[in-house]
C-alpha cells in the first residue's frame, strides 16, 4: 500500500466509513476504490480532488507526506481562521443592520 492509499484508508477509518461508503460517495465501484486505497491504480487529478473534497481536505493536505501531527495543526489553524471569519461576517451583518436602522430613522423625520 502506498502512502496516499494509507492516508485515504486512515481518513476513511477516522470517519467510520466502509470502502462501500466511500465508493458510493465517489460514484465508483468498490473494487475501483479498493485499488485506489491499495495503490494498485494511479489516481487522476480529478479523482484526487474529489477524494480531498470528500474528506474536507485541501488537495495539498491530501497529497502531503508530512507528519500527520503537522497536518492536524494546519487543519486546526484553518478551522480557527474559518471560525474567526464567520464571526467577523456576523459582525458586519450586524453593523449593516444598524446602518439601515439609522438611515431609516433619519429619513422618517
How would you sum up this structure, described in words?
By secondary structure, this protein is mainly alpha-helical. Helix content is 78%, strand content 0%. It contains six helices and no strands. Helix 2 crosses helix 3. The longest helix is centred in the last third of the chain and has 41 residues, at 68-108.
Describe the structure in brief.
This protein has helices spanning 3-14, 19-26, 30-38, 45-54, 59-63, 68-108. With 109 residues, it is mostly helical.
Please mark out the parts with pLDDT under 50 across 5 or more consecutive residues, or reply none: none
H/E element order: HHHHHH
Helix/strand-derived category reads mainly alpha
Beginning-to-end CA distance, first to last residue: 74 Å
| Beta-strand residue fraction | under 5%
Q: What general form does the structure show?
A: elongated
Gyration radius, rounded: 22 Å
Count of DSSP helices?
6
Largest sheet: none
Name the average pLDDT: 88
What is the helical fraction, as a range of percent? Answer: over 70%
Chart the SSEs and their pairings.
Blueprint lengths: L2 H12 L4 H8 L3 H9 L6 H10 L4 H5 L4 H41 L1
Helix pairs in contact: 2-3
Which features characterize this protein?
109 residues; mainly alpha; 6 helices; 78% helix
